[in-house]
Known about the structure:
Blueprint: H1 3-60, H2 70-101, H3 104-113, H4 118-145, H5 148-171, H6 181-208, H7 215-244, H8 250-270, H9 277-302, H10 311-330, E1 342-344, H11 346-357, H12 372-389, H13 394-402, H14 407-435, H15 437-461, H16 463-467, H17 471-488, H18 492-501, H19 508-512, H20 514-536, H21 538-551, H22 554-562, E2 563-565, H23 568-576, H24 578-593, H25 597-603
Antiparallel strand pairs: 1-2
Helix pairs in contact: 1-9, 2-6, 2-7, 2-8, 2-9, 3-8, 3-13, 4-6, 4-20, 5-6, 5-8, 7-8, 7-14, 7-18, 11-22, 12-18, 12-20, 12-21, 12-22, 14-15, 14-17, 15-17, 15-21, 15-22, 20-21, 23-24
Amino acid sequence: MPQLPRRHQRIEDESSSSQNSDININSNSNNNRLLREAEDVSDSIIRQEETQDEEAISQQLPSSSPPPASSPASGVHRIRKRNIRLILTYTWIIFAGRSIWNQNVLATFCFLLSGKDPKLVGYLTAAMGICQLLVSFPVGYLADKYRRDHLLKLASCIGMVAAGTTLKVLFWNGHQHQPTYSALMFSLCIWGCFWGIANTCLTAVFADSIENGERSKYFTKRSILINLGNLSGPTVALTMFLILGNEWTLMDCAYVMGTGQIICLPAMVLLCFLKDPQWQEQQESRPEDCDDMVETSRQEEDSLRTPLLSDLEEEADDERSIQANGRQGTSTPPETRPHRDETYNASKLASMLSYLCGGCCLHSDGGPPKRIIPSLVASADVLSGLASGMSIRYFAIFLYDNLHLKPVHVQLLYIIAPLLQACLAKLGQVLAKSYGRCKVTVAFKWIGVSFMMAMVTVTKLSQERIENGDKLVIAMICTLMVIRTGFMNATSALTKSVLMDYVPNDERAKWSALESFNMFSWSGSAALGGILVDYHGILFNFCITASLQFVATWPHLLLARAAVLRTNENENNTHNHPERSQIEVDRSSDRSNTDGRDRRDAIA
């Protein structure tokens, strides 16, 4: 009798538990059904509102259908890549043609045309530089306000006129078919106008087409192509002089110069195919803004789903987000990973400037003035241009009049020098990654100055042996000159990359116009160099050049002492400390988004 109630009780418990489980299953199915219905209602509401927003935006846009969201970025990217290829090709062609007629052949041609008067060689160069200066600064202002590719098309037309005028001067001038000094100066003035427009706009377009952190690489490539172009020109001139008889005559020089003018013409055509990437970005930003409006509305409407989701789904989302954040904390995406860069310590710059100028050039808060880095680089370039201009036109005359070299021998030297310069430019870029761009620049410049003084000393002590035709002494002097030329000119890409890294995008054309001022100072000092050569001789001119080139390294020396590099040790420390790595990533991302503007405003 007592077992019977327990059995009935067990049966009742089993029946009640089965009923409860059925109720739970029914309730869960009802909840899932209600959740699906709520999501369907939410999706239908969101789709209707998205359709209405897209119709409203399409009515505000022009009749032509906007491109997809990925096309503007890819379109600007293609334009930038094409600009880089075209500019590099233009660089090689234009400098190959220019090196045929504008290096040693032009100086010797003018020297012979003027009756061996060195002053007239300097005056001719000064006229071309003045025209380039007068054109470059207004062009630099216009290039920052309007489309730069239109100005490059104008430069292309002026360049073709300059080449045609020079050809007429060389071969069809007057009844005697004899070129005159005044006509040659007029044609070179047109060339100065071309360089003033082309160089100012081309450098700005080239810098805008390169991503941050890669300018040193591409400017070094352009520098190497300049050297290869300067290598190709003397090769053509050497072949022509061999065919013409290997003598310095006016007509032989005219034939060589005319060939160089013709080679320059295809490069001028390439200028017409360049596009301004900044203008392209402005034109394509409007469809992107509309897409951003649609995306923002979608994000706001997605918030309607949140109250309808179950707690289990929210926990799953939280877990996935925690996992994603954990992955982001341990590894940085490649596009936001900070590149190895060279920055400059503001306090060190301020202390050195305070020591040099007594604090008169500092801000009221004790910091360095704005744009101090590009100002120092530009001042160094101006001083170096003044120094180089005094002697650059007279190396060919030195080889012809002092060492008595034939045209073929001179062209061989002008072939070897750019080849060595290209190798040293590549070496300088590699060394700059470890030691900094300014330190490498100072070291190379000092080596070049040392070889310049050695060349002057050997020439001064071996005058009699040179007059007697001692080939060993002449070969030694030529070797010193080639090594000096390679080291002095191998750092232009490094200094140019520093300048372009620390100026805003909308000021790059103005700072590029400083190249024309350098050309003017270079040309003006060429006239001064001609006067020095006329009164004191070429060797005295070379000594003054070496002294000024040493002084021109002082601004780079200031930047070299204030330089701060990211080394492999710094990168390893950031990997060992994820929170520090994240801070560096955020700083690098901010710098890349503002194109380095915060860094320039604080230091430059």
